[in-house]
C-alpha cells in the first residue's frame, strides 16, 4: 500500500509519532480502475518527454472515481514535464492483500498511495522487506511539510514515503433537508428522527459505522483509545471506550440495515438521508450528487468533541526500488516530490477532493474552501492513527465487535471485552 536525498532534513530519529489526518483514502473509496489511463502503459523510455529523462515506475492507486480522474491528469502533466513514464494501475483487490501477494513474488509496484498507518507495519517486515528507505534519494526538504506529516512518512529513522494530504471522518449534511448543521448529538438525533422512515426507504444517517476508522471518533469521545500507542496497551475495553459506544449505538439506530460501505453512502447520495459521516475522499463524488452539500465537524457528545482517527496520505516507496534501475527510483521519487510540493496541485485537491493540505506554504496561506476547513477542524479534534505494527492486530477484532453490536448479536460492553481479549492474544 505504499508509494533522492541530498538536501533532506530528517526530523525524527525514532518511531513516528503518527500524523494527523489525512484515509483511507482510505480507508475508503470505491476504487476507480485507472488501468487504461494512458499514462505510458506501453513502458516507453520517455525520451521524447519534456524533461529529457528516461525511466518508468509502476504506481498502484485505489481511488474513488473523482480522485482517479484527477490523478490521471496530474500524472500526464508530470510525464510531459519530466520525460518519465508512470504506469498507474488499480491493485485489482484490497490493496494490502494484493501487496502481500505481489511483493514476495517480485511483482509489486514501485510506489503506492495509502494512509500512513501502514508505515510501521511494513517497515518492520524483513523477509521479504516491503518498504524502501529513500532518505538518500529524495531531493526535497521534509521541512516543506507540516510536522505531523513529516512524522507520518518516517519510522525508526527511515523515510518511506512523501505526504500530500491529511484526512478524517466528518459530518456531511444535505442543506435542503437540514436547516442548521447540528452542533450536538442531541440536535442531530432530533433531525434524524424527522427523516428516519426505513419502511419507505428513508433514513436518518448514512454511515459505515462498523469500520473502526469511521467509528473511532465516537468510541474515543470520552478520552479512551482503541489502542494506547505510547504505552503499547490495548485499551478498547476501557470504561471510556464503553461510554463512547453508547453514542455510537445511538447512531446505529438511524442507519440502513446493511452497514457495508456502498450501501451506506448511496442512501445519502440519493437524497434518502439528511446526514452522512465519511471522509474527504467522498467530497468530489458527493458534490456531483447532492445539490446543496455541507460539511461540518462531528457533533459533540456530552460536550466532548469526537476524537476521530486521522491519517496522512503518502506516496509510499516500495522495496521493489531496492533492486531497480536508478531511473526507476528517480521516476518514483520524482513523481512523489513533484506532486507533494506543487502548491497548485495541493490547492486543487483541496477544492475538488477535500484533501486537507500538509504542504507548509499552502497550510500557512489558509486559502482553502469551507468544506476543507471543516475537515481540518475535525482533524484538530481528533488523534492520529497509530502506525505501530501492533495496531495491525486491532482492526479486525474491533470490526467484528462493531458488527455484532450493530446486528444485535452482542451487548457493546461484552463485544469490546471480547475484542480486547482477541487483540491481546494476537500480540
UniProtKB/TrEMBL annotation:
Region (Disordered): 26-58
GO cellular component terms, semicolon-separated: ATP-binding cassette (ABC) transporter complex, substrate-binding subunit-containing
Source organism, top-level taxon: Archaea
PROSITE patterns: PROKAR_LIPOPROTEIN (PS51257), SBP_BACTERIAL_1 (PS01037)
GO BP: maltodextrin transmembrane transport; maltose transport
Gene3D superfamilies registered for this protein in UniProt: Periplasmic binding protein-like II
Signal peptide boundaries: none
Signal keyword on record: yes
Compositionally biased region (Gly residues): 26-54
Entry annotated with the keyword Transport: yes
InterPro entries in alphabetical order: Maltose/Cyclodextrin-bd, SBP, SBP_1_CS
Keywords assigned by UniProt, alphabetized: Signal, Sugar transport, Transport
Gene Ontology MF annotations: carbohydrate transmembrane transporter activity; maltose binding
A Pfam family per the record: SBP_bac_8
PANTHER family recorded: MALTOSE-BINDING PERIPLASMIC PROTEIN, MALTOSE_MALTODEXTRIN-BINDING PERIPLASMIC PROTEIN
Sequence similarity: Belongs to the bacterial solute-binding protein 1 family.
Protein name: Maltodextrin-binding protein
Lineage: Archaea, Methanobacteriati, Methanobacteriota, Stenosarchaea group, Halobacteria
Amino acid at each position: 500500500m505504499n508509494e533522492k536525498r541530498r538536501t533532506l532534513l530528517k526530523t525524527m530519529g525514532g518511531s513516528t509519532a503518527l500524523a494527523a489526518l489525512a484515509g483511507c483514502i482510505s480507508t475508503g473509496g470505491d476504487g476507480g480502475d485507472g488501468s487504461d489511463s494512458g499514462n505510458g502503459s506501453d513502458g516507453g523510455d520517455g525520451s521524447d518527454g519534456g524533461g529529457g529523462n528516461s525511466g518508468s515506475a509502476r504506481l498502484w492507486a485505489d481511488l474513488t472515481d473523482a480522485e482517479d480522474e484527477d490523478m490521471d491528469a496530474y500524472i500526464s502533466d508530470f510525464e510531459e514535464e519530466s520525460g518519465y513514464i508512470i504506469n498507474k494501475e488499480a491493485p485489482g483487490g484490497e490493496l494490502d492483500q494484493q501487496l502481500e501477494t505481489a511483493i514476495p513474488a517480485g511483482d509489486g509496484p514501485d510506489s503506492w498511495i495509502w494512509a500512513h498507518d501502514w508505515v510501521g507495519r511494513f517497515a518492520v517486515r524483513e523477509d521479504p522487506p516491503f518498504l524502501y528507505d529513500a532518505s538518500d534519494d529524495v531531493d526535497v526538504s521534509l521541512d516543506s511539510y507540516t510536522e505531523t506529516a513529516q512524522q507520518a512518512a518516517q519510522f525508526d529513522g527511515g523515510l518511506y514515503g512523501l505526504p500530500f494530504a491529511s484526512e478524517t471522518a466528518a459530518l456531511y449534511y444535505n442543506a435542503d433537508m437540514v436547516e442548521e448543521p447540528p452542533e450536538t448529538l442531541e440536535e442531530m438525533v432530533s433531525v434524524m428522527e424527522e427523516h428516519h422512515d426505513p419502511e419507505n426507504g428513508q433514513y436518518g444517517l448514512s454511515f459505515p459505522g462498523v469500520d473502526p476508522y469511521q467509528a473511532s471518533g465516537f468510541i474515543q469521545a470520552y478520552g479512551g483509545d482503541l489502542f494506547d500507542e505510547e504505552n503499547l496497551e490495548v485499551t478498547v475495553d476501557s470504561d471510556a471506550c464503553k461510554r463512547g459506544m453508547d453514542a455510537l449505538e445511538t447512531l446505529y439506530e438511524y442507519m440502513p440495515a446493511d452497514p457495508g460501505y456502498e450501501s451506506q453512502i448511496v442512501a445519502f447520495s440519493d437524497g434518502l438521508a439528511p446526514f452522512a459521516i465519511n471522509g474527504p475522499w467522498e467530497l468530489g463524488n458527493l458534490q456531483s450528487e447532492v445539490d446543496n452539500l455541507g460539511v461540518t465537524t462531528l457533533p459533540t457528545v456530552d460536550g466532548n468533541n469526537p476524537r476521530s482517527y486521522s491519517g496522512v496520505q503518502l506516496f509510499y516507496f516500495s522495496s521493489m526500488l531496492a533492486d531497480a534501475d536508478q531511473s526507476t527510483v528517480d521516476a518514483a521519487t520524482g513523481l512523489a516530490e513533484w506532486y507533494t510540493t506543487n502548491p497548485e496541485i495541493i490547492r486543487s485537491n483541496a477544492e475538488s477532493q477535500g484533501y486537507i493540505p500538509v504542504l507548509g506554504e499552502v497550510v500557512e496561506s489558509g486559502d482553502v474552501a469551507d468544506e476543507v476547513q471543516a475537515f481540518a477542524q475535525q482533524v484538530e479534534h481528533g488523534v492520529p492513527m497509530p502506525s505501530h505494527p501492533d495496531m495491525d492486530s486491532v482492526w479486525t477484532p474491533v470490526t467484528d465487535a462493531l458488527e455484532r453490536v450493530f446486528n444485535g448479536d452482542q451487548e457493546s460492553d461484552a463485544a469490546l471485552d471480547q475484542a480486547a481479549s482477541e487483540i491481546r492474544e494476537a500480540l
